Structure formats: C-alpha cells, structure tokens
Amino acid sequence: MIRETPTAATLVLGVDGWPGHRAGQHLDVRLTAEDGYTAQRSYSIASAPEDGVPAITVERLDDGEVSPYLVDDARAGDRLEVRGPVGGWFVWDASQGGPLWLIGGGSGVVPLMSMLRHRQRAGSDAQARLLLSARTPRDVFYRAELQAFDVTYTYTREAPAGWTGYARRVDRAMLAEAGFPPAARPRIFVCGATGFVEGVAAELVGLGHGADRIRTERFGATG
Amino acid sequence: MAMTDESTLDGNAAAGVLGAVFRFEATTTVVTCASCRAAGPLGGAVAHVSDMGTVVRCRQCSAVLIRAAELRDRVVVDLRGAATIAVSVPG
Asked: How many CA atoms lie within 13 A of A3 on its CB side?
C-alpha cells in the first residue's frame, strides 16, 4: 500500500498466475460481503508490464462501495478477487513508437503512468509528453516520479504561490501549446472523467488531430 | 445522441465481461452496427456500465450494439445490434 494523496492509494497486487499486462490495460476487482452481495469495479493498472505484478491506484469516492475499502481499510495480505488484465484498445506498446502524447485529468493519470513507466523500462526513444490537469498540486499522483518526465501541469482550483504555469481547465490554446502539432502525428491517449475526456477529444479534433490517432478512456463516477 | 453522463464510458469498459466469454480480445474487434452500418473498433464505441450489466452503443447512431450481463454463474451476451464482428487472427 502506498499513499499517493489524502484520498488515494496505490495497491500492489500479488496475483497467482498473473499472465502479464500491457500498458493502459485495466483489471476488475470484485468484493463480496458476508451476505453474498458483490460489487465490482474496474481500475487501471499503474505499473509497467516490466514490473511484473500489477499495481492499481484507487481514488476514494466517499459514497462508493469499493473504493473506500481499498483506500482506507485494505491491509497488506488481504485477499481480493481480481479479473484481468482486460482491454486491448487503450494500450500503448513501445514497439508502436511515438510521439506519445498523454492527457490526463485527475486520477486519469493512472494508465498514462503505466505507459510512461513502460516507455522508460523498455528503453524506448519515443518522444513522450504528459499534460496533467489536477485540482491542486496535492491531488497529483506520482509527483516525485513524474519529475523524470516531460510533464505540463494545469491546476484548476488552486495553484502554488508564485505559479506561472497553467491554472485553468484544459482548452484548445493549451493543447496547441503544450502538445504536439497534428503534423507530428502523435498517438494521443486521453483519460479522465467523462466531461474532461469529451471536451479534450473535441478540441483535439478541432485542432486537426485525426480521430483515428486519439484513444480515450472515460472514468465513471461509481467507486 | 445518447444521453451522456458520468456513467457513459468507452467500449473499453466492456472488456472484462466480454473477456469472460470470448477467446479473443473483444475491444479491438471491428463491430458493424446493424442499424446504421457504421463500423469501428469496439473499444471506441460508447459503453454504459452499471450493476445491472453493460450496454455498448454505436458512437454514430447510438443504437445498442451489445448487451452483456453477469449473473451468478453465467454471462449472457446479446449481440443482435452487431451485424458483424471482425476478429483479427494471427496470420
């Protein structure tokens, strides 16, 4: 268990017979109560394929059925029912090359982190940039590790004192400045809440990026 | 257009339930909509996921492509809305 922020934690899962995963995939966690009631949620995998075991980073949603347990109550050694890895669409393999442009909102950084870690561990020379929107600096996962990457932050609610970077929601001007031009034909992965993803994807198409270069992963509001 | 809210996800979100029944990776298959004949990767379609099950809709016309529900000991998949499903196989 690694605490990422006051409301989020990374859980490293030891899964018997884990077949390995690809960067960007997710897994399903199912909890079963003593009365047999079950609740299942999908979580993106944060670790790189090269790391072997899957790690997930979970944000606690206060009215959720699964995330409060995983973030606050789970302890090392607890057993979970896990299915996966699943998904083959929102994935990036180093062999696909770049440029790789990752755009995340809040906890949407999780599968993008798996891609950055994979790029690093695989020794890929693909250019990669991350544009990360967070409410405040305290809400950023993996902050120390991200210092090793080309990351542009925008803070939508509260920026640090003296901050000269972006302090607004991602918009077209920001995408034009902080990313790659359409002529570079970047592979673009956008992950976040539904509204964030739809807004960003529409602006990317408006800037001239091909819809076939953009892959999206929306996070639901159930936890 | 279908209703869009925080329960509206990508077809990718259907990977788990479909992976429980199909040998192939479902989200990279190309599905042709039986209503409007638009074709595209399942992962790029629209998915609605709830405890009742998963509904995948066409991103072009919003018709239902696939419905899947996990019951206690079986998975029920309704493919009526998919005219075809093209699966890449190793050459």
From this structure: 7
B40 to chain A, any CB pair closer than 8 A? The answer is no
A90 touches chain B (CB under 8 A): yes
Confidence of residue A220 (pLDDT cuts 50, 70, 90): confident
Identify the DSSP state of A45. B
Say whether A34 sits in a helix, a strand or coil. coil
Residue found under tokens 């998915």: B47
ipTM: 0.79
Does A31 contact B at CB distance below 8 Å?
no
Residue A222, pLDDT > 80, answer no
Range list of H helices, B1-91:
15-19
Q: Which chain B residues have a beta carbon less than 8 Å from that of A32?
A: none
Please choose, from the candidates B20, B18, B21, the residue with its C-alpha nearest in 3D space to the C-alpha of residue B31: B18
Q: What angle do CA A134, A119, B45 make, to 5 degrees?
A: 65
- The pTM is what? 0.91
Q: Tell me the residue length of chain B.
A: 91
Per-residue confidence in pLDDT tens, chain B, 91 aa: 344 555 789 999 999 899 989 989 999 999 999 999 999 999 999 999 888 899 999 999 999 999 999 888 899 999 999 999 999 887 7
Residue spans per domain, chain A: 2-86, 94-219
The domain segmentation of chain B, as residue ranges, is 8-86
Do A94 and A126 form a contact (C-beta atoms < 8 A)?
Answer: yes
Residue A216 in contact with partner chain B when CB distance is under 8 A: yes
Ramachandran angles phi, psi of A103, nearest 5°: -130, 115
Judge: B13–A220 Cβ closer than 8 Å, yes or no.
yes
The class of domain A2-86 in CATH terms is mainly beta
Helix (H, G, I), strand (E, B) or coil at A127: coil
Q: Which fold has domain A94-219?
A: Rossmann fold (3.40.50)
